[in-house]
Amino acid sequence: MTIETLPRPIAAAHAWRGPEMAARQDWIRPLTGDEIGALDAEVRRLDASGIDIAAIGPADMPVPALAGLIAEIRRQVLQAHGFILLRGLPVERWTTRQTAIAYFGLGTHLGEPVSQNGKGHILGHVKDIGMDYASPVHRGYQTAARLPYHTDSADVVGLLCLRPAKAGGLSSIASSAALYNAMLERRPDLLAELVRPVYRDRRGEVPAGAEEWYIVPIFNPMPGGGLITTYVRSTMRKAQRFPQVPRTTPALEAACDMLDALAESDEFHLDMDFHPGDVQLINNHWVLHSRTEYEDFPEPERRRHLFRLWLACAEGPELPEVFTTTWQGANANGRPGGILVPGVALNAPLEAE
Description:
- The protein is α+β, with helices and mostly antiparallel strands.
- It has eight helices and 17 strands.
- Helix 2 crosses helix 4 (96-108), helix 5 (176-186) packs across helix 6 (188-194) and helix 6 (188-194) crosses helix 8 (250-264).
- The mean pLDDT is 92.
């Protein structure tokens, strides 16, 4: 795609800027006492049943009192500005397993949990376990390092805070449509680099019959004026380890530099400070997310720990075909199926691995 054929600015509710959203409170949704009570009863029932967390589906947790909450999450995340922060899940009175049951069960009412890594984890853990972020096969969420703005490989990513860090670990998000619009206005020549396919490393998590890398554009303009974004710059850099992959051009590096700088600027991003019991849900196709570096507590039982879900949502936006063909597989509803490695069963571990 050339400068002349770039789609016009994206006009949608998810084309927002950080200061605008910081001045609003409609994206923060405290849970009500009735909602917490109803959820607590279901959690304790399911926990007593001995059910495997990975086997939980929406029918296993029928909670009519949460119908309004689920509808609100769907509207904000899949139809409006692309994110919501739930506040008040009572993690302090639940065991780790009970918290996982509540979070996983709630997630199944939004979409199908899909694998987040080559181990088949459909309940993930964001926790520093001493991994090296520079390694091609290690992931940033296994470290305390700052994470640049990026997207994940699902329709929706959810984070539940069990314990925050001693200092740092701020969650930041930015609207990809707003970033696209800014680049279109200021440097359309660089924007043109981001609508062309780029090579990315699979980090050793290779589906059956696939190469160790995949090729997909960062910005994917859709018919009808929509925009689908997928961006993980570290995987672009790590793909350069393969001799078959074309070398990154100065123009592409400059385009990514500009995208990163815009996302990091106060003009575009929105910061969130997680408290225990907070649940952040974001639309991966519309929102980039980041995290600041953090300092952790020395005691293992106090260390920063978040649960993570990747959800495939039947009501998600229309996607380019490459998302569910050469990049990822598709689930029964045709949505991105996560990271599937041959011979690996889906599972929901209660500890970080």
